[in-house]
Structure formats: structure tokens, C-alpha cells
Specification:
Layout lengths: L9 H19 L3 H44 L4 H25 L4
Length: about 110
């Protein structure tokens, strides 16, 4: 018995690949509204933890900033005010982002 080889040109191969992808996508598709509802539920469940994490990161950044500002101040650098403002602004930004996101997603 002789087996014949089949030649697949790049155009035919690409067409078969696209056909497989479209069939797979159609088989795995779900209702868009149900997906959004499920994502919203998961977001609400994990948001409190994420907000606490943002506050913790803000606290660590504040401590690092305080150490850096104290170091510059004790060495007599002239740009201590600018450095303090930058680190303080970073901490405030994290707290504001956590609060605004909570309000944006209606999780009051």
C-alpha cells in the first residue's frame, strides 16, 4: 500500500487555521451580559482586599520616603522640600486612587 503525500500551500493552511479558530470561538462563546455580570461579581468580592493592599503599599512608600527625606535633610541637601513633596504626593495618589476606584465601581 502506498501513501500519497498531500501538499498544503500556505494559503490553504492559513484558511484551515482560520476555520478552526472560528469554529472554536463559536463553540466557546457565551452571553456577553452574563460574562460582564460575573466579572462585576468577582471584582466586588476582591476589591476590599485590593484596597487594603493599596493602602499598605502607600504606607510602605511613605516610610521609604520619610527615610529618604530624613537622609537628605541630615546631609544638608538643598532639594529636601522637592523630595518630600514628591514622596508625599505618591502616597496621596495611592490613597486617592483606591477611594476613587471604590466610588467609580459603586462599592460604597
Amino acid at each position: 500500500m502506498r501513501i500519497r503525500s498531500i501538499r498544503i500551500t500556505p494559503t490553504v493552511g492559513l484558511s484551515l487555521l482560520l476555520l478552526c479558530l472560528l469554529l472554536t470561538d463559536a463553540a466557546l462563546a457565551q452571553d456577553g451580559e452574563a460574562g460582564i455580570r460575573e466579572a462585576t461579581t468577582k471584582l466586588k468580592r476582591y476589591f476590599e482586599t485590593a484596597q487594603t493592599l493599596l493602602y499598605a503599599i502607600g504606607g510602605v512608600i511613605g516610610l521609604i520616603g520619610a527615610i529618604k527625606v530624613y537622609s537628605k535633610w541630615s546631609h544638608g541637601d538643598n532639594d529636601t522640600t522637592k523630595t518630600a513633596a514628591a514622596w508625599f504626593s505618591a502616597c496621596i495618589f495611592l490613597v486617592v486612587v483606591a477611594t476613587v476606584l471604590k466610588s467609580f465601581f459603586g462599592l460604597n
